[in-house]
Design brief:
The chain is of the alpha/beta class. Helix 7 packs antiparallel against helix 8 and helix 8 crosses helix 13. The structure holds fe (ii) ion (FE2) (2 copies). The site of one fe (ii) ion (FE2) has 5 residues, from helix 7.
């Protein structure tokens, strides 16, 4: 077996392929064919061994026999897709005389491609090459997303009064979205959009963003530019495209008196309306430089007044009240998000 200790750095540069097949001859053949491509090769003779190697160090590509003794290739595939560390790894299923039904099952479970036995060496090499390149792109995107999330945290961290604001808004908005039965895609927009809703504040000067006193008209106009700035900063990032309706529209009001577009009523995307409720609630229930934190009841009272003025979606506020009943003040998630950065 090709299991000599490998240098982790070396593996990350060359990429790792894991071959899971109980047939030693097939493994030998695959290894001899793709060996010259220069990747680090690992082998496993059973589903259990394969899963163990996956857990040790997620590879960049898995070649997986569909018919393994004991736990099947389908089981392995499901576990790969269920684990956040391995869910994006391309998996090619090596199939003998697989039925249509079994192939369908694999597609549903998230297989990347099939390779029928017997396969031609050229076909195997071409598949491996294409998928290893694809994995490089996926990794780069994942890295980019991590960078963006780190950046999003810096917005909250700039101001100790708003520390944890975006993460709490995301939590409240997701719970509200689930309660009102938003579909999965819209929920993803809410979750991600809420996390990045104030991203555009990155472009606002400290002197304005952190000013304790009253803002001048110009300064207020600068603050009001943050949804537009957020859109401009994020619009070229495919991974965050779904967050856009929330980033851009979270300051709209039901009566059209909000910004940036003055949308009204149901013309405001539902993901944005849900996030706005969470945003206003969190802003009022946490301390600001110019006032202390308000209680939940005081906050809901003020927000109800604002619903009557025509600002927020009253139905959503009612539902949010019900969400709060299930969310105690000392909920572990809220406490953790409000603990503050240890460096401050
Ligand atoms: Fe905002
Ligand atoms: Fe906000």
């Amino acid at each position: 077996m090709n299991d000599a200790p490998i240098d982790a750095r070396d593996a990350s540069i060359r990429g790792t392929v894991l071959v899971i097949d109980d047939d030693e001859q097939i493994r030998r053949l695959i290894v001899s064919l793709i060996g010259p491509m220069g990747h680090v090769l690992k082998e496993a003779a059973s589903a259990e061994e394969g899963l163990e190697k996956l857990r040790e160090e997620p590879p960049d590509l898995v070649l997986l026999d569909m018919q393994l003794p004991g736990r099947s290739g389908h089981d392995v595939l499901k576990e790969i897709r269920a684990d956040p560390r391995s869910r994006l790894i391309p998996v090619v299923m090596i199939t003998g005389a697989a039925t249509h039904e079994r192939k369908l099952k694999a597609i549903e479970a998230g297989v990347t491609d099939f390779l029928g036995k017997p396969f031609s060496p050229e076909e195997l090499v071409a598949r491996v090459r294409a998928l290893m390149e694809l994995k490089l792109v996926t990794d780069a995107l994942e890295d980019a997303e991590q960078v963006i999330i780190a950046l999003a945290r810096t917005i909250d961290a700039r101001d100790r009064y708003t520390y944890g604001h975006s993460a709490r808004v995301s939590l409240y908005a997701s719970l509200l979205g689930e309660r009102v039965g938003l579909e999965r895609r819209v929920l993803a927009t809410v979750r991600q959009g809420a996390l990045f809703h104030d991203f555009g504040k990155i472009a606002i000067r400290d002197a304005v963003l952190l000013k304790p006193g009253k803002l001048t008209n110009e300064e207020y106009a600068e603050i009001k530019g943050h949804p537009r700035e957020g859109r401009d900063l994020l619009q070229n990032m495919k991974t965050l495209a779904q967050a856009m309706p929330v980033v851009y529209h979270h300051h709209e009001r039901m009566d059209g008196s909000g910004y940036p577009d003055g949308l009204s009523g149901h013309g405001i995307p539902i993901a944005a309306r849900v996030t706005t409720i969470a945003d206003v609630f969190d802003a009022l229930t946490t301390a600001r430089v110019y006032r202390g934190a308000l209680s939940r009841e005081e906050t809901l009272g003020i927000m109800l007044e604002e619903v009557r003025k025509g600002w927020w979606d009253g139905r959503l506020l009612d539902e949010f009240r019900a969400v709060l009943e299930t969310l105690p003040l000392d909920d572990a998630r809220i406490l953790r998000l409000s603990a503050g950065p240890s460096s401050l």
